[in-house]
Amino acid sequence: MNCWDSINVTKQLGFYRSLILSSLFGLLSFIFLYLPFTLIHKDIIVKDHGLIPVILGVAILPLLHKALRILPLKVTNKHLRIKWTLEKKFIPNFHVGNHSKTSKPTLFFALLTPTIVITIPCIVSSYFVPSYYPYFLLVGAINLSLSYIDFLYIRHLWKAPKKCLISNEEQGYDILIPR
Fold first, then answer.
1. CA separation for the pair 5, 168 (Å, rounded)
2. pTM above 0.85, yes or no
3. Bridge partners (DSSP) listed for residue 166
C-alpha cells in the first residue's frame, strides 16, 4: 500500500485556530437555529430546572460524541483497539488504537454519526417540545461545534480515491491506495 495523502487538520490549521473556528461555527449555528425557533415558538414559556442539568448535559456531550464516532468503527472492525483513560482522575476519555485501517464509506459514516444521532434529533425535538427548545438547540449547536473538525476531515476524504483504506494515525489519518 502506498500513502496517497496524510490528513492532520490540527497541524494544518493549528490548535488554537481550529478551536476558534469550531467555537465560532457552534455559536453561529446556535444563532441561526435559535432565531427561527424563537419566531415559531413566540408564546411559549421556557421551563427552567436550574443550571446543573444543563452543565451535566454539556459535560457528557463530548464523551457521547466520541463514543458515537467510534461505534460504527467498532461494529465494522472487530480488531479495533480502544484505550480508556481517566483524565484528571474523574473525566473518562478513550482513544482509538493507532494503525487501524478502515474503508472510506465506513469512516464517512463514522464521522457523520454524531451529527445524525445527536444534532438532528435535537433540532426535531426543539420543534416538538417547545418548552425546552433552547436547551435542545444549545446541545445541537455544541455538537455541531464538536463536529466541525469531522466536517473538515470529510472534506479531505471526499477527494480521496474510491478504493482506498484510511489508517488512523497519532494525530490524523493516512489515505492508503493499493499499488
1. 12
2. yes
3. 102, 175
- The total of structural domains in the chain comes to 1
Domain assignment of residue 61, yes or no:
yes
Is residue 46 within 8 A of residue 134, CB to CB? The reply is yes
Residue 116: inside a domain, yes or no? Answer: yes
User: Alpha-carbon distance 66 to 132, whole Å?
Assistant: 25
The range of the structural domain enclosing residue 67 comes to 18-159
**Which three three-digit cell numbers place residue 137?**
438547540
Rounded Cα distance, 46 and 131, in Å: 4
Residue 101 covered by a domain: yes
- Domain assignment present for 109: yes
Instruction: Read off the pLDDT of residues 13-49 as tens digits, 9 standing for 90 and up.
Output: 888 999 999 999 999 999 999 999 999 998 888 888 8
Name the H helices within 5-50: 9-13, 15-40
